[in-house]
Amino acid sequence: MRGLLRRRRGIAFLAGLTATLLATASGLPAVAAQPRSADPLQRQVDAIHGTGAVGVLAEVSGPGGRSAARVGTAVAGSRIPMPWNGRFRIGSATKTFTAAVVLQLVGENRMSLDDTVERWLPGVVRGHGNDGRRITVRQLLQHTSGLRDVAPEIAALNSAAGYRAERFRTYPPGELVRLAVSDAPRFPPGKGWSYSNTNYVLAAMIIEEVTGRSWAREVKARIIRPLGLSGTSVPGTFPLVRGPHAHGYAAFGTEEATDVTTLDPSMAFGSGAVISTAHDLSRFYAALLGGRLLTPAQLGELTDTVDAPELGVRYGLGIAEIPLSCGGTYFGHRGELLGYTTWAGATADGRRSAAVYVNSEGGQGTQNAMTALVDQQLCAKG
After folding, report:
1. pLDDT at 20
2. Cβ proximity of 370 and 360 under 8 Å
3. Is 92 a residue of the active site?
4. What pTM was computed for the model?
5. CB 250 within 8 A of CB 2
6. What is the architecture of the domain spanning 17-379?
7. 200 membership: H or E segment, kind and range
C-alpha cells in the first residue's frame, strides 16, 4: 500500500532509512521569535520541503519542552498553510499501536506470544502451503511468519485508476487474509524476515477474538483515551479525515499527482488505518518507550529486536530499532498510506521524541531528509 503497505511506495515502511544515518499553535507553548535560518527544526523541515513535498510539519519534544515547524501548503496550488495539529493517515505507524495492545493482553495473561494463529483463528490461515498451526503471534508481530503481503492485491493503492474505482470499497479482514494466502508463503515460519501487512491484519483479528470487542475499540480504550490523544482516531470504513487536515497526494509512479485524501481505510485494518497528528504521535512514542503503556517485561518484548535485512535495521514487535548518529539507538516506525508519509520515534527512555509528516508520497530524497530530521532532533542536547 503505497507507504502504509509495502510495494515501492506501498507500505514500504522504512525504505531509505539507512541512507541517512515553531511558532505558537493550538496546544503548543509560545517560543521566542527568531530568524528562520537560526531554528534547526525549521531548517530541517525546509530541507524536506526542498525534496518536492507539498507540505511538511514536524513536532519534537524533550525535557526542555516541545516545538514545531511547518512549511508548504495543505492543498496543492493554494496558499493554505499546513495546519498545526493537522490530522493525517499514519499508515504503518499503526503497527506499533496494534503490537502494544497485543502486549497488554499478554501482560494480563489473556493470551501468549507463543500462541498459534490457529488457536485464535481456526482455519483462517490455510492453503497453498500456509498453515496457521505453525505460525505464532510473535512471528506475526515480528514479520517472521513468511506470509505474503496483501498490499499488491489492493487496486486502490497501486494506480490512479484503481484508486478512483475502489476508494470507497470496504475490505473485510477475512477477505484480506484470503487474498494473501492465495499464494505460497515466502518462507517457512521463523526461517526468514519479510515485511507483510497481512501479519497485522491477523494480529488485529486475534485481538478481537481474545477480547470479544473490536480492534478499534481496544485501541481507543487502551491507548487513545488513557494518553489523551485528542487528534487520534480509528476510522473503520469512514473515508474522510475529520477535523483540520491537509490533502494527501499520490503520483502512482507517474508525473501527475492525484488527490487521494478520500479513502475507505479498511484495507489497512490493524496494519495502517489509524489517523493521528504529529503532536499525538510524538506523545505516543514517548509514552510507550517511557513505560506508560506496558510493564517492563512487555516493553522488553516490544524492543527485543532481530535483523530485518529488507530494511537494514533491527525490528522488534511493531517497532524498529535504528542507530543514532550520536551513538546508541532509538525506536520508531515509518508510515505511509496513500498521500501521507510519516516518520516518528523516541529515544529508548522516552525522554525525547519526534514526529514529522508530509502530505505527498515520500521519494528517496524526502525519506532521507525525514529520517535525518528525526535523528538530529533526538540527538539534540537542548
Report:
1. 37
2. no
3. yes
4. 0.92
5. yes
6. 3-Layer(aba) Sandwich (3.40)
7. helix 198-211
